[in-house]
Amino acid sequence: MSRRKSLQKTNEPFLRSIRSRPELATSEQFPFNIPAFAQGIDLTLKRKVTFLVGENGSGKSTLLEAVAVLCGFSLQGGTLDHGHAQTGEGSLLAETLRLAWLPKVSSGFFMRAESFFDFASYIDSVGDRSLYGGAAPLLEQSHGESFLSLFQNRWRDGLFILDEPEAALSPQRQLAFLRILYDLERTQRAQFLIATHSPMLLLYPGADVLHLSADGIKRIDPEETEHVRLTRDFLRDPQSYFRALFAEEPEES
After folding, report:
1. Residue-wise pLDDT tens digits, 155-187
2. What contacts 205, CB < 8 A, 6 or more positions away?
């Protein structure tokens, strides 16, 4: 086997596919009636970095939660040894999904922006600062600093499921996160499944982008996502958007 073919093989993701059982397509119960899931879920993951993109309520977080549950993570986020009760929309959806692996991995991290404080509290309670580089306790750092500290110092291998990580990060910190993502991906031992609204993250080179909408879940060029197009157009001419947004309604006669 040539060196190029060998490298391509190691670049393949561990988690290969996410598929639903047929009954998902006929259920009228939430979250199964989310439009993006109406025709069932049949996803083949082709890259080590996959982004989920779509409007609020399109099902991104629910799908991530379901995958996280099937991997053994808590719905509250964290590592496999940071357990909580498994309740929520994602756990309902998880009952209808099947994951295919090659090979199966048993390490990684599930990050939810809204529950990261709880996980940081747990890590601080352990008392081992080597988990995050020997810096100040996580709760004494900013949200973004603590998030990056954990990624830089604790995690190397496995599946990383991240729900809108940009919520914790300034634009400059998003760039720092992209460098961490690049370094971890390059080791061939890490895979990422990330829901995001961030144009900066979506443009990560070589990533696969899946768009959730009423048309289902389809691959999309990141340049064609509304997140990138709208942000680019707005920054090019913000005043035109302000004129349209702040235009006064004509008075009724």
Report:
1. 778 999 999 989 878 899 999 999 989 998 888
2. none
Tokens representing residue 215 in the block: 């048309």
What separation, in Å, do the N-terminal and C-terminal C-alpha atoms of the chain show? 79
Distance CA 48, CA 43 (A): 14
Picking from 147, 150, 189, 149, the residue whose alpha carbon sits closest to that of residue 164 is: 147
Fold category of 13-244 in CATH:
Rossmann fold (3.40.50)
Q: What does the block give as tokens for 2?
A: 């040539």
Q: What is the pLDDT of residues 190-204, one digit of tens each?
A: 999 999 999 999 999
Three-state DSSP at 39 gives: coil
Reported in sequence order, the residue ranges of the chain that DSSP labels E, i.e. its strands, are: 15-20, 42-44, 49-53, 97-101, 108-112, 158-163, 190-195, 208-213, 216-219
Pairing of strands 49-53, 108-112: unpaired
Contacts of residue 34, Cβ cutoff 8 Å, sequence gap at least 6: 57, 58, 59, 62
Q: Which amino acid is residue 98, in one-letter code? A: R
Distance CA 11, CA 23 (A): 33
Which residue is it, tokens 């009952």?
95
Residue 2: what pLDDT? 39
Q: Strand runs (DSSP E) across 37-170, as ranges?
A: 42-44, 49-53, 97-101, 108-112, 158-163
Q: Is there a contact between 222 and 207 (Cβ–Cβ < 8 Å)?
A: yes
CA 134 to chain centre: 27
pLDDT at 29: 79
